[in-house]
Amino acid sequence: MPLNSVTASIPSSEISHNRVWNFSAGPSVLPLSVLEEVQRDLLNYKGEGMSVLEMSHRSKVYGNIISDAEATLRRVLKVPDNYSILFLQGGGTGEFAAAYLNLMSCKSVREKQRKLGRQLACDYIVTGGWSKSGLKETKRLGGITNVVLDGVKSAATGEVTYNSLPPVSEWNLGKPEETAFLYYCENETVHGVETPANYVVDVVDPLVPVICDMSSNMLSRPIDISRFGAIVAGAQKNMGPAGVSIVIVRKDLLERDETDPEITRNIPSILDWCYYDGAESMPHTPPTFTIYVCGLVFKWAENLGLEALEKLRETRSGLVYDMIDAHPEFFHGLVDKKFRSAMNLVFTLPTRELEAQFISEAAERNMVQLKGHRNLGGIRISLYNAMPIEGAKAFVIFMKEFYEKNVQ
Amino acid sequence: MPLNSVTASIPSSEISHNRVWNFSAGPSVLPLSVLEEVQRDLLNYKGEGMSVLEMSHRSKVYGNIISDAEATLRRVLKVPDNYSILFLQGGGTGEFAAAYLNLMSCKSVREKQRKLGRQLACDYIVTGGWSKSGLKETKRLGGITNVVLDGVKSAATGEVTYNSLPPVSEWNLGKPEETAFLYYCENETVHGVETPANYVVDVVDPLVPVICDMSSNMLSRPIDISRFGAIVAGAQKNMGPAGVSIVIVRKDLLERDETDPEITRNIPSILDWCYYDGAESMPHTPPTFTIYVCGLVFKWAENLGLEALEKLRETRSGLVYDMIDAHPEFFHGLVDKKFRSAMNLVFTLPTRELEAQFISEAAERNMVQLKGHRNLGGIRISLYNAMPIEGAKAFVIFMKEFYEKNVQ
């Protein structure tokens, strides 16, 4: 979209509550209509005489809330029948451990291991902070890991930067018969690196289940679920509030040899996907209210459709990237164009002082949470599903004015 | 309180929202004033222009919310300085595993184990479904367990019933030098068995850290925290919505020998108390909104004070137990008077048909969630902190009328 067609038209429904433009990387902006519904029903959910916050997870009403949430997500993402959808707790950090522990216990992986005669390795694609943390957790728990790639290494200095992926020809993939699974994070929230859809599954041998952390880009574009072993995601970006993790896992990976005494010994129940799968995500009290809000977000997403959401994400991020690309000497994008994220946009300004001023002047215009992650610095703005196009427009107008005022 | 002084006076503030009397065992009734505050601030928290549901956990505003919640709980429960308060995820089920894994890794326990020359045992007091699940989880994870007591065994039939505790003289406590810790659940939500305050810590050797699951009676009476190694609790009874677990742990139990390679290998980060303690409960995104609501409940509890809350719980449950005791041939209390719970009151009626009728007629009077747990049957009503005295009164009036109509 050419900048001259951009106007800061903020729909009146958005400003009626004096709300800010919230560019937080997560927890993050939720659809206003969802918040309004939550607010309306907060004391008395649909005539039940109680709040969802107070509702027994064993009540019929709540049973419908959680099964509707699951069914809606299944429709939106076109999840095939041979995949289970689970609602767990513990976010990304929980799922790092859960992915490793559950995969190493599944029948086909253990059979492969028996044939090999030694412990299988776990392939990790490291594209930023989150995949790095996943790798670290697996190591902590005694896993043998194989790093397929670790950012991009400077030939001159040997320094590793998480701003791109090396060519596939340089990937150090494990041999399929020696590899339990491959793990990657499709959108790196901290480093702003997003791997294009199917980019990884197109490369990996089908004998190796691909486990993908989609915490920060799930629901923002169509996915071909059937190509993944499991997809794990914390909800608090595009899907709802913090406190629930969503796992979509191929059912054959939940099969276990129950006569094997080693199977469950290392998996605490709380991380055991089978424990949840057998009880429709409620072997014990789930985070009831959080799942309820997610369910409303899923419905909101269904009404728009994944194709429309993808178009919106490209439009939103395109507006900002166009401005970055127009003035690269002032707005310095940190990520290789091919892999830059439509969700988390990271860039720097010429000086630290200008960055501080940028953040402070943005705040005066009710644009908040612009500061880069503490590990990276600079500016980061997150443009999740619920960010109206008008938020991105207002930001770009601000960028332009700031640029014109401060360019040398 | 004599029944003739009981009237069904429902304060107008309670009925203004057409709310029911919610006797759910959890998630359960929350203070109306808390819900009203949550509702009021749902779209725009104190002028921040966003909902707490959307708020970055790294923002200053949220930092204040979580540290206020911790500080308030510390004041209300008089938590000594040498105890940490942690906010985790995973409820009781998560804490079963966490208690075992963390305790077995702590310096003093490992030193004791080194002296003994073999794996220490974990003492379990089994008074109902929840402590039984805790025992099971520790066994699953490879723990050596010693059952101190397992309900009450009939001398005639050998059948075990969870309706009382055997005399202390019959407890099979492990030798202190062979025992890593002792675990019990102070209030059994399913079986309605509540162990009196200090009853267990008075018996256990001070060399053995006592780990207590107080999920369903925390904040309902004063506790002498200093007598416990750790107290763990899911929030969704007296403390807030489902989705957060609270751990109060003596700091020396978080000390570890970091040179010991076995230490963290078996503890997924998500269950590692040290991981949270080092990062003020935010090594990663916490269940932000749930903790916010808990913080409001803690303030509500602080305004009343634990002594008043204890008086309220005794009054509320006393009303119902008085009616049970007055007509024991009709309302058959399932638990020994000495150990019956003030939180979860379980009883049966003469026939299944009468129980169904009782539940259905109660529903007509807007009293819901009366059905006993699926493992136990009968009637269960839960009278947590946020249940107004008027709710218990209304229930007792209904009991009396039902009795008079149906007694033979």
TrEMBL record, chains A, B:
Its EC number is 2.6.1.52. The gene is SER1_2. This is Phosphoserine transaminase. Keywords: Aminotransferase, Transferase. The keyword Transferase applies. It comes from Kickxella alabastrina. It comes from the Eukaryota. It is an enzyme of class 2 (transferase).
